[in-house]
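hiii, so i know i said id send this last week but things got crazy w the move. better late than never?? heres the sequnce for the chain we talked about at the cafe, plus the structure i predicted for it. fair warning i was half asleep when i ran it
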Amino acid sequence: MRESDAHQDARAARLRTWALLLSALQGAPGAGERLALASEAIPSITGADLAAGMLVRAAPQDTLLKVKDARGRAHPHAGPPVLRGNGLDQVLARVADSGPTWFSAPSTCGPSETTGPHWMDDLGLHVLLASPLTVSRDQRGLALAAWCSPPSDPPQWEAFLTTLADHLALGFRNLELARALKESRGSERRTRNRFTALLDVTNAAVGSLDRDTLFRRVAQAIGNVVELDRASLLLLDEEDQAFSVVTLLDRDARGLRSEHSRLPRHASVAGDVIQSGESRICRDLGDRPRRWEEKGLLRAGIRSYVSVPLGIRHRPLGVLAIGSRRPGQFSPEDATFLEQMGNQIALGLQNMLDHERTEDRRRELESENEDLRRRVDAVGSGGRVVGRSKAMEVMLRRAMQVAPTDATVLLQGESGTGKELVARVIHEASHRTDGRLVRVNCAAIPQNLYESEFFGHVRGAFSGAERDRAGRFAMAHGGTLFLDEVGDLPLELQAKFLRVLQDGRYQRVGDDETRSADVRVIAATNRDLEDAVRDGDFRSDLYYRLSVFPIMIPPLRQRPEDIPLLVRHFLAELSEGTGRPTPSVAPEDMGHLMSRSWPGNVRELRNVVERALIVSGGGPLRFEADPHASRTDRPTPPETGAGRVLTEEEVETFIRNNVEAALRSARGRVWGEGGAADLLGIPPTTLASRLDRLELRPADFAEE
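okay and structure toks below
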C-alpha cells in the first residue's frame, strides 16, 4: 500500500472514531462516563500514550479524574491518587491564562518551553498537551494528552483536543441545565421555560450547521421566553470593522424575516458591547441622549433594549440585541439569562462559520480540480492542436501572434472544433501562464445569477446569499477568463460586462467597494455575432470590444487531410492504459472517414473512434456507417489493401484524386449548387486554396 493510501486510511479511521465518540458522548448519562469515553478515545485518535479528563467541582472530594493508557485501560501507575494534587493545579492555572498549552517533561524542558509536572518524568512522558474545559468563561476542568516521544503533527492534535474540550464543556453544561431543569419542577413557569429555551438553543448550536435553520431555532427559543418586539443578531465581518445585521424576529412583521443590513462597528452601541465584553441595558430611549443607531430604533417604536456580547474562547463574534416597545422591559436578570443563551448561540455561530468556510474551501477545491483536470486533458493531448493543414497553420499562426499580448481574443467556430483547446494554447503561450485559466459556460448560468457568477456577491446581497462569494473575475485575477458561448450573454449584463472590459473595475453584488480586474479575456462562440448585432440580440460595442483579434477555427470538413493525424492521435490516447497495442486503420476505412461531412467536427470524430475501439474488443476496428451521408455520388477511397495504414503521400494522393473527381463530375465548375465545392461539402474559398496547393486548374476539367 502506498504511503499516501495508508495516510488516507489512517485519517479515515480517526474520523470514524471521532464520529463514534461524538455519538457516544451525546448519549452518556453522566460527567464521569463522558470523561471516561473521552480519555479512552484520545489515544486511539492522536497516538498519545496517556490521556486524562478532569472535571473540577466545588468540593475537592467531588472532583472527577479519568486516566487511560494507549489501549484505553486505566493506567497502572498514573491513577487519580498519583496525578491529583501533584502538579495538576499548575496545569489548570496555566491553561486558564493561556488556553491550550504544551508542557515538556522537567528533565528535557528547554529554556523557551513550559515545564510540566514532575510525574511526567516518573511516567516516561516527553510532552503533554492540556486544553481547558470552559463554560460561560468559567474553567471547569481540562482534557489532557501526553506522549513518550514528540508527536508528528502538534497543531492537528491541539485543534482536536481543543474541539473535544469544547464538546465536553458543552456536554457538562447540558447536564447541568438538565439537572437544574429537573430540580426546578414545580417552580414558576418562567424559570422552567427559560431552562427549556437554553436547552433548545444548546441543541440548535450543536445540531444546526445551516444558517437559516440555526437562526430560526434561536429566534423561536428567544421568542418563547422573553417579552420582546424585535430580536437581531449583529455578526462581525471578517475584518472586525462592521456588523452584518440579521433580524431574527419582528412582531410587526408577524414572524421571521431574513433581511440583512450593515452597521459600522466604530462609535456604535454594539461596538462598545464587543469592546467591553459586558451587556448593556437601556431602560428607556426617550429619557436620555441617543446614539445614531438608537435614534433609528426609536423611530421604529423601540423604547428599551438589552444587548449582550457573543464570543467563544475570547474571540468576539457579534452581539445579540433584544428590543421592546415598552420602556423598562428588561432587567439585569434578563441580561444574565440572555448571556447564558448567548454562550450557546456563540458556539452555534462558530460551528456554522467553520462549516461555511469548509464548504467555501470545498467549492474552491472543486473549481481548482476542474481546472487541473482540464490541464491534464490538455497535457494528455500533448497540450497542442493536432493538424498540419493549411487552414490550421493559418489559425495557429494567428494564435501565436496574439498570445504574448493582453488583447481580447474572439474564437469563432462551429461546435466541437476545439475552441477551448485553442484558448488554452493562447493562455499557456502568454505571460499569464502562471495564473489560472477560468472557464465560464455563458449558456449554462441561470438568468438571475449572471452578475453573482461573474462579479461575486457579499453576504446578504439577496435571498440565499449566506456568505461572501468571489466571482469568476476574482478567480481569474492575474490569469485568463475564457468565456465559452459568449453569444448567450443576456443583454442586460452585456453593458456591465463592457464596462469591466473597458475600465478593468467591477463591484460585487451588494457591495459598494470597487475592485480591480487584472484579467485577459478570451471569448468563444459558434454563433454569427454580426447577425446577432443586426438582430438586436448582441450589443455592437461589446462585439467590437471582444473582436479585437478574431480567430476563425476551421471545421473538420474543411481540413480532411488532418483526419489521419487526429485518428492516430485519438487511438493512441484512448488505447493508453488498456495494455493492448494501438490498433491501425485500414486505408479504405480511413478514406471513408476523410470523405465524411463531420457536422460535430473533432468532437464527433473522437466519439466515432472511441466507439470503434470499444466495439472492436481488441480485434480489427469497425467504423459505423456515416449517419450524415446524403449523397451516393462521392468518389470512393482507393483500394490499397485491407489492414495497411495510409502514408502521408497516399493521403495526399487520395485528396488530389477526390478533388479531381469532384471537378470532373462538375465539369470544372467550382461555385454554385452541384459545383465541385458543393459536392465536396466545403466552401468554394477553401477549395480554391486547395486547388492552388495541388496546382489544379478547373478549366482542364470543363470538357471532360
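btw The two ends are 73 Å apart (CA to CA). thought thatd interest u
miss u guys!!
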